[in-house]
Amino acid sequence: MGKDVIVACDFNTAEETLRFLDNFTEEKPYVKIGMELFYAEGPEIVREIKRRGHKIFLDLKLHDIPNTVKKAMAVLSRLDVDMCNLHAAGTVAMMKAAVEGLTRPDGTRPLLIAVTQLTSTDQERMERDLLINEPLEKVVMHYASNAKAAGLDGVVCSPLESPAVHETCGKEFLTVTPGVRFADGDKGDQVRVTTPEKAKELGSDYIVVGRPITQAQDPVAAYRRCIKEFVD
Ligand code: C5P
To answer: How many angstroms is it from 64 CA to the middle of ligand 1?
Structure first.
């Protein structure tokens, strides 16, 4: 599986998103569309970005009863996205139903990735609010194993967790990793960050990069720098 840089297009209008993508005249970056943009603009923004030739990771983090997730995934599959995701906390049954729903009549389907524990959840919150009394790292690896057992392709995790995920679930199991910053860049609200170069060293399969590219003076140069450090 080829490594790639996914650009998080965290905008809330189609206009701003397309204006941003217009900067790229030579390359077609892999684009992540999240809840904000999807809820604002609906499926049409997905179709438009696909028409322009980009691959799309639709980051909607589904979590519901298996039948509902199966049907929702069938709709996303028809939208022709390349990657989508769900919460592993929805259980193995929900994840298996998602794979079924996502699979097209010809047997192909978008990549399906699981969120394990959100990075906004720490040990204390997990114990207090969720009554999960195991070490966070163990919970993340257990959820990753469940995702693999359900037939998913990988997980969203920190680049720092990529080696352990690959050790637990195998090298082919994908790690899609946000929390990436340039060595000389602003960390913003991200805490546990790594550079694209370090993410490559740690074995991440995809990095998800938002503000270091979207807010850069020269977004195309920032994107190329990510590709140079992570892919080339
Ligand atoms: O701007 P920045 O590079 O921090 O954007 C990272 C992207 O990855 C955002 O879209 C954010 O929602 C997403 N993300 C994250 N951490 C996670 C999961 C997703 O930063 N654990």
So the answer is: 22
0.70 surpassed by pTM? yes
Q: For the chain, give me the number of helices (H) and strands (E)?
A: 11, 8
Residue 82 and residue 127: Cα distance in Å, rounded? 35
Q: Which atom of ligand 1 is nearest to the CA of 180?
A: 3
SS3 151: coil
- Alpha carbon distance 18, 23 (integer Å): 9
The token duo for 28 is 């077609």
Residue 1 has what pLDDT?
A: 61
Kindly report the protein residue whose alpha carbon is nearest to atom 21 of ligand 1.
119
Provide the token pair at 16: 């701003």
Residue type, 90: G
pLDDT in tens, 158-183: 899 999 999 999 999 999 999 999 99
> Which of 10, 85, 86, 209 to mutate for ligand 1's pocket (most ligand atoms within 8 Å of CB)?
10
> pLDDT tens digits, residue range 7-63?
999 999 999 999 999 999 999 999 999 999 999 999 999 999 999 999 999 999 999
Q: Euclidean distance between the first and final Cα of the chain, in Å?
A: 14
Could you give the CA distance from residue 49 to residue 46 in angstroms, rounded to a whole number? 5
Give the pair of three-digit tokens for residue 136: 């966070």
By the 10 Å C-beta count (0-12 exposed, 13-18 middle, 19+ buried), 102 is classed as: buried
| 106 CA distance to ligand 1 middle (Å) | 33
Q: Which residues line ligand 1 (CB under 6 A)?
A: 8, 10, 34, 118-119, 156, 178-179, 188, 190, 208-212
The number of beta carbons lying within 10 Å of the beta carbon of residue 214 is 18
